[in-house]
Specification:
Order of helices and strands: EEEEEEEHEEEHHEEEHHH
Shape: globular
Helix content: 10-25%
Strand order of the largest sheet: 1-8-7-11-10-9-13
Radius of gyration: 16 Å
CATH class: Mainly Beta
Number of strands: 13
Amino acid sequence: MTGKVTSVNVGIVTEAAWAGDASGRSGIDKRPADGPVLFHTGGVAGDFIGEPAHHGGPDKAVYAYAVEDAAWWETDLGRGIRPGGFGENLTTYAVDVTGAVIGEHWAVGEALLQVTMPRTPCTTFAGFWGVPDLVKRFTARATPGAYLRVVRAGAVAAGDPIEIVRRPGHGVTVGEVFRATSLEPELLPRLLEADDLPEKIREKVRRRLGEVTD
């Protein structure tokens, strides 16, 4: 299965009242890069992270969103959304991001990425778009985009192919994880089948299922 990179986007420093960082700064406003950008285990070169406690790090090194899902929002909101408008580093074409299996590997340009988890919408996102009820609407739509870790560092540029080179057999998808943790708790037991799901999320699942107590 092969898709394509529409755009590689890097966050600039934005100071705003809606910024979640205590300093009032956010890196959600990401702009398309002119050329190749290095993806490394810590993230995307030159990308500003305003809230390191909630964004960035090895399990959230890269955030991907599909142009097909963005198109739905353009229609719903009645306005255009440029690449990077979701705060994504990687804008994809012809890749089922919501249907990506947790742990699957993407060969993208020179890099090798691994799908880890869905994105959780936040008030910073709502403030950036100027849509007060965006968190509720984004949750209901349930096309959250995917976070990825960098297995092999390398340069990535617009136009590079995206090839899915490994897909785990458990079949637990980004969309399932998102729905289980936000809309459909009956799906929670299934998430524990995904060994590649970050341990922090697996622990939260076990707690909600009563398997772990304080």
